[in-house]
Amino acid sequence: MRWDAQALNPARRAPGTDSARDSGADTGTAAVPLLPLAGLVRSVSTPEFAGVTFHEVTAKSVLNKVAAGSRMPFEWTVNPYRGCSHACVYCFARKSHTYLDFDAGLDFDSQVVVKINAAEVLRRELAKPSWGRQHVALGTNTDPYQRAEGRYRLMPGIIGALADSGTPLSILTKGTLLARDIPLLKHAAAQVPVGIGISLAMTDERLSEAIEPGTPGPKARLKLISRLRDAGLPCGVMAMPILPWLSDSDEALDSLFSSLAAAGATGVTAGALYLKPGTREWFMQWIAARHPELAGRYRRLYGTGSYASKEYRAWLAGRVRYFKARYGFSGSHGFSHRDADDPRGEEAAYPEGSLPAARAGTPGTAQASQPTLF
After folding, report:
1. What is the rounded distance in angstroms from the CA atom of residue 374 to the CA atom of residue 372?
2. ∠ CA(51), CA(56), CA(62), 5° rounding?
3. SS3 letters for 271-335?
């Protein structure tokens, strides 16, 4: 069925009224923008992406400046999509969807904003004399290789624009669609420093299907890591979140780290589940429904905060150190945006390979051979 035939008429909502909903073509009930989205061209629903509505917008700018004072190891980001059909129950970015007047739960999974002119706008921004060619990070909020990328193909233009302008870049993703762009990334890596990170925190296919239902499974992501390494590209792994009582056993951690070593990951960092507001409510609802026997334990472990207890994090850090040493990852250095004595240091680290390594004369990159604190 033709994509263009699936356009929905955007609906406006009067302030203070309940969320407006329209029927999507052949997909049941689909949300439409609750407030007019800036630059909205059309909203699209199609059987190919059942239950998901895409809101196509034209952006005026796509380069995002990281907030002043942040210790992130980059100053600029690009996010071609907002919302994510990966539908990871634990996704830390859920609350960001409320800024568009969508909710942080089902809307985050099913109402995806697409910046259809991202590559063209980015190329114009990078051509400005004021651009300093600092490292630009992709995948910091929602996944640039979620399923919609197969339709919209925004990333080739974005990667090309960055490389052609001499701008170092990094990508963090769960999406195996990245494999499509391996030749382009190899070409980019010959022009500028490139870092690639894969998010993978479990090898249990059934658990992955339950808690991150829209993502490629662990086996598929392990294969992607191997393909990247075979292509001569770096690939660090963010093994987060480790889920208390679900993926933190010695058996689960041994399976994870041994699989990552076999796949050739250049570095690994791991940390416990992080439940910031917006994510916490959605995750706790999921736990109560899927694992009611754990609901009380999670409430006690997290209390009223976003982090697991200090005792749990210290215990998990010890197990992570053990398995990193066992499988040869202890010698790999990452990049932390926390103080050295912060107990969340491992959780805040970027593994070797996930950030662009510095080259002589290249501004805005971090040297991979030594750990750097930001």
Report:
1. 7
2. 125
3. EECCCCCCHHHHHHHHHHHHCHHHHHHHHHHHCCCCCCCHHHHHHHHHHHHHHHHHCCCCCCCCE
Helix pair 155-164, 118-126: axis angle to 10 deg: 10
- Per-residue pLDDT reduced to its tens digit, 268-311: 999 999 999 999 999 999 999 999 999 999 999 999 999 999 99
User: What span, in angstroms and rounded, lies between the C-alpha atoms of 62 and 76?
Assistant: 10
- CA-based max dimension of the chain: 59
Instruction: List the structure tokens of 331.
Output: 């010698």
Contacts of 374 (CB under 8 A, 6+ apart): 71, 72, 73, 335, 336, 337
Please give the DSSP secondary-structure letter assigned to residue 67.
P
- Sign, CA dihedral 221-79-287-313, equals positive
Residues 166-172 have a mean pLDDT of 98
Identify the bridge partners of residue 366 per DSSP, sorted by sequence position. 357
> Average pLDDT of 157-175?
98
Distance of CA 361 to the CA centre of its chain: 29
DSSP string, 199-239: E-----HHHHHHHSTTSPPHHHHHHHHHHHHHTT---EEEE
Taking the alpha carbons of 36, 37, 41, 46 in that order, is the dihedral positive or negative? negative
Token representation of residue 51: 């239950």
- Rounded Cα distance between 190 and 159, Å, is 13
Instruction: Give the list of residues 6+ apart from residue 253 with CB closer than 8 angstroms, or none.
Output: 242, 247, 319, 320, 323
Two structure tokens written together for 306: 């976003």
